[in-house]
Amino acid sequence: MKLGKAAGPDGVPIEAWKVLGDLGINWLTQFLNRITKEGDLPERRGFMPERSTTDAIFIARQVMEKYREKRKPCYLAFLDLDKAYDRPPRAVLFEALRGSGVSERLTTVIRDMYEGSKAAIRTPYG
């Protein structure tokens, strides 16, 4: 992190997103809508050396704030690995999403995020 300014996973500093304002939000909205429509997920944002989760939290808050200002719905998905080994069956989660009125398309995108996901723990001993 140079001068306390961490770049996002795309190498673009957070300050650049701030300057882009509505243009950046519109691009991000179109990007996320395409993911939802096509059901194709890009590389997930996970732990990356020398990257702070603060950046991801900042971006999520900015997106939520813009949607709140425009009174539009905003959907975000998070995977909490703290409880990775203490989880309910995924099929139950997806049924709960459907029962809550979440569209089948969005449920499929969320299910695809979980399919094939693996967790690993690194220790100094291997």
From TrEMBL:
Domain of life: Eukaryota
Family matches, as PANTHER family: REVERSE TRANSCRIPTASES (PTHR19446)
Protein name in UniProt: Reverse transcriptase domain-containing protein
